[in-house]
Amino acid sequence: MRARRQTNDRALPPAAFYCVSSGAYFLGAVALVNSLRLLGHSEPIFVLDRGLSSDQRELLEHEVTLVPAPDDTTPFLLKTVAPLRHPAEVMVLLDADIIVTRPLTELIERASDDRVVAVEHQLDRSVPEWGTLLGLASTRRRQYVSSSLVLAGGKIGRRVIRLMDEAQARIEIERTPYAGELPDFDFVGGSFSVTSFDDPFYFADQDVLNAVLSTEVDPERVDAIDQRLEATVPFTGLRVVDETRLRCAYEDGLEPYALHQIFPVKPWLEPTMPGAYKQLMLRLLLSRDVAIQVPRHDLPLHLRPGLIARTERWCRGPLMDGVRALGSRVRLMR
Predict the structure, then answer these.
(1) Greatest extent of the chain over all pairs of C-alpha atoms, in Å
(2) Fewest CB within a 10 Å sphere: which of 132, 134, 269, 321?
């Protein structure tokens, strides 16, 4: 990788990682940070703090730099804050519900050559009015990409982050599903479909990213990588081949760089079906070889190991279901 470059009298680190986390997403952020460290990434990690507790901050600060979040900004428009305050030659933006399963060194090297690297999105989406609405150049149709794993490198990468930050102030978040608690998604046939996305910025920061790439960046400077390299729910055809090393593979041998738990329901918030993400998340929260050790008593019951926790889970689950069913039957017999 290239050596540190002097920019505006500041020496930028060759690469850094960035994510946003609230208190509810703390365990997801821990799993993300632990996956990066376990895979050998020693680069700086910056976590934008949007409501972490003091105990959560204390645990994270062993491995990351916490960045205070603005008070008046929706969480879906915050990805640019930490990179702008703490830039690097290559800025790797990650969602907090991602686990990295393969070193990102090759992608960082690619982005370091004044490039933006992102993952293809399954949507075929392009809005001709993007440029006009954001005061940018004319929109060119190009591959739509996800904003969940983005590597922004060199001057072009820094310009993309800056333009995204400026453009986000122009969008009307109230006209997107992100104005509420959760976006309005339907799960159909193994993939996500959206009930309606007529608004040019329905996908908030993701649409802004694609608008900037479609208007202000030479197409030759944007690499859209295979969408299977960021595996998403329901992880069809994917299996964990080496839990210790976080390795996963599809049936054809392709190994993704990351797993993304895109369901609104997160496995650290409530019990979910088994799967590759949940398996590795538990490994990253419970093993003793990870960078951030979360005390067992701070984990929700459904994630804790041991006989006592399993017994309590059973008592709260099947046993209570049986008691409720019996009670209903007794009432019907009266």
Answers:
(1) 82
(2) 321
